[in-house]
Amino acid sequence: MKKLENDLMSIPSELNVLKEHLQGNITVDYDIHTLTLDSAVGNGQVRYTNLQSGLQTFDFNLKLDKDVEIPIDSMTSESIQFLYCLEGHCYHQFETFEKVTLIEQFQTAVAHSDKDLASKIIIKKANHLILNIICVNKKEYFDKFSKENNPFGKKLQRLLYEIGTKSKHFHLGSYSLKIAEQLKLLFGVEHSNEVSELLSQKGRYYLVLAKHIEQFQTEIENTSNTSGLLKNELKLISQVSDYIKQHPEMQHSIKTLCLESGLSPAKLQEGFKFMFERTVSDFVRNVRLEKSEKLIKTTDLTISEIVYSVGLTSRSYFCKIFKKKYHYSPKEYKSKK
Q: What is the pLDDT at residue 309?
């Protein structure tokens, strides 16, 4: 159950800093704090989640009526910030430095500065911004994980060395739709009080951080990990994938999807292989299987009804690919429900 700010024993200091710059009320739902903006400032929210000691995330989803500057170094001290702009755009600037860097839609960025150098993001009015910032405390998080046997140990040590030895560091990364796909599942949905659902949501933030680290490490080593697609082409790929998810029952083909998006067949396939590591047909098949699995768990539809509702015509073929993915036939899976 959500509690109003007055009823809270304590509010995270990080959120109090935000409240000074973005007026509004703070509520808490389980261990997720949300700052809802006053209508005089604009519309939207900032959601704060403490993932673990030394690891926090901020989700901005707002549209302001005035330009606002937010000191991210004051929100979190001694940290490295991983930024991703899912929609709209924002700017980054170090205090006393004239250079202002634009962070565009689908673009990553990594920021760090010493205590004596303020680091801020600038949000322009009338711009619908959806932005995720993951703050990693160097001492609490990096030191701990660098000593443990974990898949990111060496990468984290190299990352810390690359950034932490500099008084300031800002890396504007390339576009990433892989991160976008994870964040789409987190933005625009209500967090649940169910522990299993909360753990699942937190797990997605760890996936986002892992993809940030992987991409940053690749870019500073000057190795190629980009698709070669332009920003507008990446946006079209994202829209096509959403369209398929919303309409799994339609008979999607390369021709119809190219007409829908305006992309060439080569660009369409290239984008799906980069984004999902699947061909277009594999992606469509997987979307249909995931939708059918959900229908089996949440409805009383028969298997035949489910087959046709997801755009397939052969029940035997559906049973074959379903069992390959979920290790049970649809009938067995339904009985387990």
A: 93
Three-class DSSP labels, the chain: CCEEHHHCCCCCHHHHHHHHHCCEEEEEECCEEEEEECCCCEEEEEEEEEEECCEEEEEEEEEECCCEEEEHHHHCCCEEEEEEEEECCEEEEECCCCCEEEECCCEEEEEEECCCCCEEEEECCCCCEEEEEEEEEHHHHHHHHHCCCCCCHHHHHHHHHHHHCCCEEEEEEEECHHHHHHHHCCCCCCCCCCHHHHHHHHHHHHHHHHHHHHHHHHHHCCCCCCCCCCHHHHHHHHHHHHHHHHCCCCCCCHHHHHHHHCCCHHHHHHHHHHHHCCCHHHHHHHHHHHHHHHHHHHCCCCHHHHHHHCCCCCHHHHHHHHHHHHCCCHHHHHHHC
Please state, as a whole number, how many other Cβ atoms lie within 10 Å of the Cβ of residue 299: 11
> Do residues 62 and 37 make contact, with C-beta atoms less than 8 angstroms apart?
yes
**Average pLDDT rounded to a whole number, residues 240-261:** 92
Using one digit for the tens of pLDDT, what is the confidence trace for 48-106?
A: 998 888 889 999 999 999 999 998 877 766 788 999 999 999 999 988 777 899 999 99
Return the minimum-mean-pLDDT range out of 46-50, 158-162, 253-257, 285-289: 158-162
Q: Which residue has the tokens 């250079």?
A: 99
Query: Per-residue pLDDT averaged across 130-153, rounded?
Result: 71
Burial group, residue 146, by CB count within 10 angstroms (0-12, 13-18, 19+)? middle
Full-model pTM = 0.74
| Residues contacting 63, CB < 8 A, separation 6+ | 42, 43, 44, 126, 127, 128, 129
Backbone angles phi, psi at 18, to 5 degrees: -65, -40
Tokens describing residue 315: 């029940």
Q: Closest Cα partner for 136 from 213, 203, 232, 66? A: 213
